[in-house]
Design goal:
With 227 residues, the protein is of the alpha/beta class. The protein has eleven helices and seven strands. Helices cover 54% and strands 13% of the residues. A hairpin with a 2-residue loop joins strand 4 and strand 5. The chain is globular, with a radius of gyration of 18 Å.
Amino acid sequence: MGSEKSRVFIVDDHPLVREGLTMLVNRQDDMEVCGEAGDPAGALQGITEAKPNIVIVDLSLGAFSGMDLVKTLSAQETRIPVVVLSMHDENLYAERVIRAGARGYIMKRETAKKIIDAVRQVLAGKLYVSSEVSEMFAEKFVDRKLTVGTSPIEQLSDRELEVFSLLGQGFETRRIAETLHLSVKTVQAYCSRIKEKLNLANGTELLREAVYWHDNRAGRGLAESAH
């Protein structure tokens, strides 16, 4: 009785999602929402002011990158634990966000109970991923190499994956450069590396594959065509 509640900060670019998560968290006896934001700049300012015990972050923050926010938060002295809650395929993104410094990854399709369990587990100092991802981590650890049959998209660096994702959303090179605060030349260099890694002949093939991957959200375009 009277124990202090854990303070939760929510970062998602959809107001309806933030509202739903706020209601879910505030229904718990042991936690409460202390702030929310829809973009990284608002998140960093809000987190500094609210001093939460944990942050829930979506990977897609409109034109901004949730991955960059995770990296920024994990580099701060306070080291506030981060749980990524996303619709993106966990097989492709869970390992990336854990490497970036997040303490948990859970997909939006999961039940409210699982989301709360994930938050509680990370608050307790543990790592949270699904049992499927945990098994995948274990296999990679034992094999010391990528599992045979993995999606070629896993070869992409975090920044290359961002460029690929924005291409799939219909962004032109100049807009990608503006969004990621890069030069057009740098974006073109990323595109060249992506084509090379994914064995694509030209820009048309790159665009087609990026759109197909984005529309399927789980990045299965190349994975399926590789078999």
